Amino acid sequence: MLAGALFLTACSHNSSLPPFTASGFAEDQGAVRIWRKDSGDNVHLLAVFSPWRSGDTTTREYRWQGDNLTLININVYSKPPVIFARVLTIAVI
Fold first, then answer.
1. pLDDT value at position 5?
2. Would the CA dihedral through 31, 37, 38, 42 be positive or negative?
3. Which of 21, 26, 47, 51 is the most buried (most CB within 10 A)?
4. Vertex 60, ends 53 and 17: CA angle to 5°?
5. Which residues of 40-58 are buried (b: 16+ CB within 10 A; e: fewer)?
6. 83 has a pLDDT exceeding 90
7. Is the torsion defined by CA of 16, 41, 73, 79 positive or negative?
8. What 3 state SS string does the chain have?
């Protein structure tokens, strides 16, 4: 019984996210990678899609300050040129 209690204590679960996380997955068309950085009340998320064969790599950047989404930045890296789209200051109602 004591061994079981020690095991449960050693395997305690912390549900809070670390300040930096990274993840990704592969699908039929390409690879997706996601990075998230928390800093106080700010959250920065970067998602990248890279196609396996044809197509363009696309990045999407999102930033939050508190509950407000303050930036969406989408870049499509093609040959030629690179396409940039940016939206600033989005208020959550």
1. 47
2. negative
3. 47
4. 115
5. eeebeebbbbbeeeeeeeb
6. no
7. negative
8. CHHHHHHHHHCCCCCCCCCEEEEEEECCCEEEEEEEEEECCEEEEEEEEEECCCCCEEEEEEEEECCEEEEEEEEEECCCCCEEEEEECCCCC
In whole angstroms, give the CA distance from residue 76 to residue 13: 39
User: Rounded to two decimals, what is the model's pTM?
Assistant: 0.68
Q: State how far the alpha carbon of 13 is from the alpha carbons of 4, 7, 67, in Å.
A: 16, 12, 26
User: Domain spans of the chain?
Assistant: 20-88
Of 81, 84, 80, 30, nearest to 54 by C-alpha is 30
